[in-house]
Each structure stands twice: as structure tokens, then as C-alpha cells.
DNA sequence: GTGAAATTCTAGCACCGCTAGACCTTCTGT
DNA sequence: ACAGAAGGTCTAGCGGTGCTAGAATTTCAC
């Protein structure tokens, strides 16, 4: 048995190595630079081993995305814990969300922009993803007012954050006014229904 | 002279042919299907003629995007003209925006998602683009309240719309609740500052 | 009609994601 | 201890991509 478990452990380690290499390469040079050849060279194996771990490049991106969800969820939770009051909470969580997107743009792309076949608004969605949404939900709920649909309101607020960061990152919105736009979004959502 | 002008006219016609073919192919099968070979076959010329008109594939997408800006601006203007009252105007324009994004997803991608090197929030931006933003601005201004920064508020509202449509189109938000989310967004922005 | 100029095409480069089949290592049964 | 089976990894290659150099063709000016 022990020899088999060692094999399995080594294999799991190599899988993590692939994910980490893909993530670091993407963060350093963007996803366009993450080619299967390049990635194989990075982990010092040949291309086909990638396909013995993942179905294809998209599956590797999806694995990276799942790591990102966990990191985002942790960041949001931390931000929420650091403040009190509904308005402050919304501002802290919204700020943490956009800060994450700006700090880890490639990671954010894999999570929320690239067409990677991950289930989202279903129970089958990755736990880390559901947790990240839960953090947003807990920040939005106190300011939901009489809407009676905190889930939908959270989705809408999330869309606002997502729009801000994606439009900014693609050069469609100027960077320098980001904080002011975020403040406007928060004011509109914290104002009550 | 007349022979030269005929040449120039024919050349302009062929350029438009390229743009139209690219757009139709993208709308029918997505941008992944728009390869330079496929596009060349569509216009019944060889690949290199594409490069005598455009610097590369991105430039073709940019040209398609500019057409899209004009169409979007027209749609928003029409929607705004059909109603009266600030809340109704915002709902009409927001609805027209998301309807456009859902009706012409590939076009919308070229305009607002793909990294195409078009200037946005500057005077050098395409006229049609500035006009489309102007339509949004005229819809948001009446509900701006005391914010005193209608430009930034419009950008923020735009981000909300953009987030809704992109997250929905990538399967991150379920389609069926779109109208309710849009209504929530509108309510938050029409509520006054 | 002929040489010059402009235009279009053929052919190919370097790269992409992905995979079949050869190769080598490791384990198993006698 | 050793032959054969099983498993893992590699080399080499497929069909595709965006893009371009240089040949071939057409059109022009004289």
C-alpha cells in the first residue's frame, strides 16, 4: 500500500505544481503566455503529462480559478470582520473585492471573465465560490431594505463591482477615479431600498 | 482622376465588405470562428488583402465595434425618446442597453469585452462611442440628485449594466432573473442620491 | 506594344492545443 | 533471479492559428 500512496501523493503534488506554475505564469505575463509548451517546460515535464492531469488548458484555468475563489472569499471575510455597521461593511467588502481584482488581474480573469465551464449559481458550484458569494451576501443583506430579495440584490451589486473592475482593466474606465465610482456604487446600494 | 476615385471607392467598398463579413460571421458562430482564412474565403479574396486594409485581426474587430457603437447609440436614443419622466427614462435606456447586449452578443464582446485598442474615455474616442455614452448620461443625469458628478455616476451605472450582461452571458448569473436584477439596479440609481 | 507600377496570390513561418504510438521504467509471477 | 505485463513518460506529429515575404499577375503610362 505505502508505495501506491506515495505514487498518489507525488501525483497530487505534481498536479498542484501545474496549477501553481500556471497561476504564476499568468500573473506574471498574462494568460496568453500560458501555453501548454511553456507550462510543460516550467514544470520540467513534457506536454502530455498535463493532459494526464487535466482534460485541457481550460481545465487548468478552472483549477486556478477555484484557488482564486478561496483567496477572494478569505479576503472578503477578513474585510467584513474588520469593521462594524452596514455601510462600513458594504464599503469594506466592495473595496476588498475590487482590490483583489486589481491585485490579481489574471486570477480574476480566470474566475470571472474567461469562459471556463464551472457551474456558478447552482449547488454544484465550488464551495469556495459559494462562500465568496456568501460573504458578499452578508455585506449586502443589512442594506437590502424592503426589497425582500437579498440574493438578487447581491447579484446586482456584484455585477456593479464586476463591471467596474472589468471596464477599468480593459481601459474603458480611467483608473484614477475608481475609488470615487466605487463610493458612488456603495452609496446607491447602502441608501436603502 | 475618375479612374483613381473609382479605385478608391471600390477599395472602400471592399473594406466595408470585410467588416460586414466579420460581423455576420461573429454573430452567427462567435469570434472564434472568425479566422483570417475563413474571412478571406467569405469575401472571396486571399488572406493578405485583409492586411492591406487592416493592421491585423484586432483592427477588424475594432472596426466592427465602431459599427456597434453607432447601433447602440441609436437604440438608446430611440428608447429615451419613447418615454417621459426620469425613472421611466432610466428604465428604458437601461433596458435598451441590456437588450442590445443580449441581441448582439458578439458585437457587444468586440465593443466592451475584447481587448481592442480603442480609446475610450478621451476626446479621441470614436464619435459613436461618445454619443452612446452621452445617451446614458442623459438618462442618468435627471436622477443624479446631489452627487454633483453625473459623469462618474453614469460610468458607475454603466458598469452595473455591463456587469449584469457579461456575468449573465458567461453563465455566471442565471438568465431568467435578469429583468428583476435590472429593476433592482434601476431602483437603486433612480432613488436619488 | 512595352516597360513600370500597383495589386493580388501562393507558399510558408512560428506558434497554438492536443494526441498516437514508441520508449523506458517499474512491478508481478514463477 | 528473471521474463513478461503494466504503467508512465517521451518524441514526433496533426490540423489549426495570425501573419508575411516574395512570386505572379494585372493594370497603368508612355
From TrEMBL, chains A, B:
Entry-linked Pfam families: TetR_C_33, TetR_N
Family annotation (PROSITE patterns): HTH_TETR_2
Signal peptide per UniProt: none
Domain HTH tetR-type residue range list: 12-72
Cross-referenced Gene3D superfamilies: Tetracycline Repressor, domain 2
DNA-binding region: 35-54
Swiss-Prot/TrEMBL keywords: DNA-binding, Transcription, Transcription regulation
The keyword DNA-binding belongs to this UniProt entry's keyword annotation: yes
Name recorded for this polypeptide: Transcriptional regulator, TetR family
Amino acid at each position: 500500500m505505502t508505495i501506491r500512496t506515495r505514487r498518489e501523493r507525488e501525483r497530487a503534488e505534481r498536479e498542484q505544481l501545474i496549477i501553481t506554475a500556471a497561476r504564476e505564469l499568468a500573473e506574471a505575463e498574462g494568460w496568453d503566455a500560458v501555453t501548454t509548451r511553456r507550462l510543460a517546460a516550467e514544470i520540467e515535464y513534457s506536454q502530455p503529462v498535463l493532459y494526464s492531469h487535466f482534460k485541457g488548458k481550460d481545465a487548468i484555468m478552472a483549477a486556478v480559478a477555484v484557488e482564486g475563489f478561496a483567496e477572494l472569499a478569505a479576503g472578503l471575510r477578513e474585510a467584513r470582520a474588520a469593521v462594524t455597521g452596514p455601510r462600513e461593511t458594504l464599503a469594506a467588502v466592495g473595496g476588498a473585492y475590487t482590490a483583489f481584482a486589481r491585485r490579481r488581474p489574471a486570477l480574476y480573469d480566470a474566475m470571472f471573465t474567461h469562459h471556463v465551464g464551472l457551474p456558478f449559481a447552482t449547488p454544484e458550484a465550488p464551495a469556495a465560490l459559494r462562500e465568496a458569494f456568501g460573504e458578499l451576501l452578508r455585506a449586502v443583506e443589512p442594506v437590502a431594505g424592503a426589497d425582500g430579495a437579498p440574493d438578487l440584490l447581491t447579484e446586482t451589486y456584484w455585477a456593479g463591482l464586476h463591471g467596474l473592475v472589468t471596464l477599468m482593466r480593459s481601459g474603458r474606465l480611467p483608473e484614477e477615479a475608481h475609488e470615487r465610482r466605487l463610493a458612488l456604487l456603495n452609496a446607491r446600494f447602502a441608501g436603502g431600498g
